[in-house]
Amino acid sequence: MITTALDNAYRRYAAKRPISEQLHARARTFLPSGTTRSVLDFDPYPFTVASAAGCRLTDVDGLEYLDYLGDYSVGLAGHNPAAVREALAAVLEKGWSFGAVAAEEAEVARMLCERFESMDLVRFTSSGTEANLVAISLALKAADRSKVLVFDGGYHGGFLSFSRGRPSLNVPFDAVICDYNDLDSVREAFAQWPEQIGCVLLEPMLGSGGRIQADAGFLEGIRTLCDENGSVLVFDEVQTSRMSYGGGQALLGVRPDLTTLGKYIGGGLGFGVVGGAEKLMLQIARGGERSYDHSGTFNNNRFSMAASSAMLGTVLTRSSLDALFERGEDLRKRADHVLREHGFQATGWGSLMGFHPTDTPIRRASDLAGLDRRPVELLFHEMLERGVYTGKSGFATLSLPQTPETDDHFLTALEESVRVVAKAGF
Ligand SMILES: Cc1ncc(COP(=O)(O)O)c(C=O)c1O
User: Which residues have any ligand 1 atom within 6 Å of their CB?
Assistant: First the structure.
């Protein structure tokens, strides 16, 4: 019955989006499956956006969507925020791609080091993936070891994706995969490879792997194991840094050696950061004892630097981040209440939320591994039908332009949608 309901949903979707269908058919001629970002591909075909403002998207067929995907957490400030627009306009006036230093990069670095207690120094990259590649490389070089300990379901970029049993295009780091929230599995790995594990890389909340919060004591336990074994602790805060002014780490009270950032801080432009302890970061200082080059044509691209300067300087204030966190906690509880009546549940932390078709506790990626995801896909389509855009695999992300009224719209759509899914035989 779920399959029939999905087929009907595809038909209903296609009937309303003929222009998107044509554009997608043309795109398929030149792009594998018509897209250049796998996560945006869904059945029967993705709609094509014509414009966006605040927390709303309009597609080429004239349909409007309330945006609760927030570009998978990039869109914290919503679409076209004035502060970023003005910063970009100033760059257009003065020029870009100097092949030389501009003042903004040091200013952005200063603002980040001021916010993140664990950051003595930072370097910029073009993406979160690249930031993680640099972080792992710095950690392994410093420890003079070869293995990276990661977690099942951990997503650190297109080339650093660690879901057991799923094919990947990963770079060939020697990865040891443990289970999230299972400190014993980490202890066992260290017992087996005490001299080889050079770093532990993890998200303070398993993000793309299901938006699963870390249990109390899990991150502290990992901190201790890293210290006992001479291993570098890397927090990937590409998603979770939005939890407070000083990131997820400030809320949790655990200090990593290196941290990576990206997404929303760049205001919607390509952006990544690796930052942390001076001793580790100085490996890429010129003339140091161990002096590695770390280059990248776009590391200081002026648009990203200007956008992140505006974001850090005016948008991402302590009070706006605290309010977003509180609103997220509240909305997730309300969503969870609505979903549980129909055998679903909501997971997440602060302004990041996941929906799952099960009511049993979810603490690690394997708790989700065997689940039929079709109910989530149907939920996604039913939300779209009600004008609300979320992630195809059951993600919702809050942004600043949303209001109590849009939250109510989101919740009503969720309630109606999950009822349809339940009726379809879930
Ligand atoms: C936690 C986390 N790390 C890293 C990345 C990769 O960032 P980017 O897509 O900018 O390369 C992502 C992207 O979704 C992410 O969620």
Answer: 72, 127-129, 132, 155-157, 203, 207-208, 236, 238-239, 262, 272
